[in-house]
Amino acid sequence: MVEAQSWTTRRGSNPRLDPAADQLLDIPATPPGDVRNGPNAPGSLVSLTVVIIASWYLSNIGVLLLNKYLLSIYGYRYPIFLTMLHMISCSVYSYIAIVWFEIVPLQHISSRRQFFKILALSAIFCFSVVCGNTSLRYLPVSFNQAIGATTPFFTAIFAFLITCKKESGQVYLALVPVVFGIVLASNSEPSFHLFGFFICLGSTAGRALKSVVQGLLLTSEGEKLHSMNLLLYMAPMAAMILLPFTLYIEGNVLGITLEKARGNWNMVFLLFGNATVAYLVNLSNFLVTKHTSALTLQVLGNAKAAVAATVSVLIFRNQVTWMGMMGFAVTMFGVGLYSEAKKRLQEMISQPNAATY
């Protein structure tokens, strides 16, 4: 015979009616409306991230297209002076962003040694940017981006030559399609220009050299600078380095620019807009890293070359071949393999550290 349950027993069997269970159940309170709909709400954060990533794409691709239009289509054949305008713009906007709006804390140069290290980086930076802008006079943006995708190859070479750093076999193996793809694209590029090709390779190598040298020079805690502070100091140094070169090589470029501006005010808006977008590239790099991660920025950078190449073909209608597209695809595939191999290597290095207490 089954013993009948008392009212207390039945009540105790239901945790929702048990006073002791009320103490164990942790039901979070519903947040007020101002929190759910405020700027820190999940939906708002996602929307902000999407806007920042879209801005990153627009600024990175926009400065490429504007440089191509100015230097090749519009006929403004002064890449050194244009780069100097970019550096002046970055100097002014960086000062406003850091000193006035305080987007990052202002850091100061602490020693003469640190000053000369930043000056050396500025010189490499100048070489890379000037070569990149000059190459756009001779090469379509699509081919320019295909060559630029070989940056990992040059980074591995300079890391080995300067720091004697050896990568894993997987990393070196991933570089094979990077180089093979650009060979395919070069052999089938209808607008191939030998000088433009080598000057674009110089820009790519300079970009890789800067990343290696920056990691070598600014390593101590006292000398490390935030990327926005580094730009604040590098940009005016780069402008001063470029000034004598533009005066010697490009002649009376300032007078010619002013004369063109008097006859056509569009020139002023093009140069001002181009210089502003050049700074927005650096600002959007910082914002993407802040709101996502450095890995996200790397993935976006890998995809940017393909997006920029596609957009440039649609706008400038430059001729492309199937072999060229295949070579570009092989290069981008190699870049993806390289990024994945580097990621796995970093995880293998960090795992032993994560296991220690």
From TrEMBL:
The name of this protein is Sugar phosphate transporter domain-containing protein
List all Polar residues biased stretches: 1-12
UniProt region (Disordered), positions on chain:
1-23
- What does the UniProt keyword field contain? Membrane, Transmembrane, Transmembrane helix
* Membrane topology, record value: Multi-pass membrane protein
Q: Would I find Amino-acid biosynthesis among this entry's keywords? A: no
Listed transmembrane segments: 45-66, 78-103, 115-136, 142-162, 169-186, 230-249, 269-288, 322-339
Localization recorded for this chain is:
Membrane
Q: Provide one Gene Ontology cellular component.
A: membrane
Q: What is its main location?
A: membrane
InterPro entries assigned to the protein according to its UniProt record, in alphabetical order? EmrE-like (IPR037185), Sugar_P_trans_dom (IPR004853), TPT_transporter (IPR050186)
Entry-linked Pfam families = TPT
Which top-level group of life is the source organism from? Eukaryota
Q: Where is the Sugar phosphate transporter domain?
A: 51-339
